[in-house]
From TrEMBL:
Organism: Rhodotorula toruloides
Cellular compartments annotated: Cytoplasm
Top-level division of the source organism's lineage: Eukaryota
Domain DNA-directed DNA polymerase X: residue ranges: 10-343
Entry protein name: DNA polymerase beta
Helix-hairpin-helix DNA-binding motif class domain location: 59-78, 99-118
Stretch of the intact protein here: 677 to 1020 of 1020
Function: Repair polymerase that plays a key role in base-excision repair. During this process, the damaged base is excised by specific DNA glycosylases, the DNA backbone is nicked at the abasic site by an apurinic/apyrimidic (AP) endonuclease, and POLB removes 5'-deoxyribose-phosphate from the preincised AP site acting as a 5'-deoxyribose-phosphate lyase (5'-dRP lyase); through its DNA polymerase activity, it adds one nucleotide to the 3' end of the arising single-nucleotide gap.
Amino acid sequence: NPEENRTTRNGPNEPVAFQLEKLADLQSTTTEKDQFRQRSYKQAANKLRSCPTKVTRFDQLVKLRGIGDKMANKIIEILRTGTHRRLTTFQTEREKTVKLFCGIYGVGQAKAADLYDKGARSVEMIRRDPARFGAELLHVGLKYYEDLLERIPRDEVTELYGHAKRIAYKIDPKLQVWCMGSYRRGAETCGDIDLIITRDPSDGKTHEGAVQKLWKGLVAEKMVRHELTVPEDWRSLDALVHGLIRLPKPGAKMRRIDVLGVPFDEIPAAMIYFTGNDYFNRSIRLKARRHGYRLNQRGLYKDVARDRKGIKLTEGVPVPGIKHERDIFRVLKVPYCEPEQRLP
Ligand code: DCP
Ligand code: MG
Ligand code: MN
């Protein structure tokens, strides 16, 4: 899981390093001086990542090779405010437009900057001539740009979830389907629909192939319209598919959906992971680490050996007897909290 790797591998200065990388992405690269600035942000980010202790003071910062006075001041501002002016207030037309392009589904900071640098100034402009800006692969994102910017009203998620459950139970009444993410946290609107699917294998049958059958069912009923990522192996118990879906009625908007298989014994950890939110996940994982455990979306492991820098030396062994989310909270001595309360 990339997110966990990032925080555990990159050490205690990761949040600042992450912001510096965003600044690097925003930096225009027209002149050599611009390119130099972009490199300094990236260097500073890497420097901080290789630092095993948290750096918070000006004098500590300037002692690091490659971080000068100006960069140190920027870092202090990030530490104080959690961000940097340039990331919150738009200063240039380029930054505004890059930010706008990031709203196109499938476009990140780097691609957005690239679109701008190739001369794109509006979504309409890219729509008219995608080839000119190297945007051929953004076809779906451009087509449903307006829909996909919107968050989904909770009732609509409930309705789509209902269709998925109906189809799943027709395939096999013992399949279990849950709607995770912000929906499980009780949010009034959701960015996407996160479904997980599993089956208790104690009668000898698993959910093998169920992700594909459910997906095909949603396609057959004309709800799923676009597959954006498909699994390498549809039959694997952790098959993941990602696409666009809409309710089968006129005027329905296109929404993003993830459907993911979870091996039954991984359900407790997966429930925690996919309920989130991501800040909550980060903090509960940190707590696990402090107690000598390791928690990820697959499970809770004990006896994890780490070196002085916190780099993992052994994978650890699964903690036995974990049947529910609550068991993980209990082992980690974190008071159980309902999904609605799972904020940082
Ligand atoms: N998740 C995480 N770290 C990430 C991405 C996801 O821990 N980098 C976990 C926590 C999220 C869950 O997966 O709650 C679902 O991911 P989403 O991106 O769908 O986020 P949410 O459902 O929480 O919010 P949204 O309403 O924007 O979809
Ligand atoms: Mg979500
Ligand atoms: Mn999601």
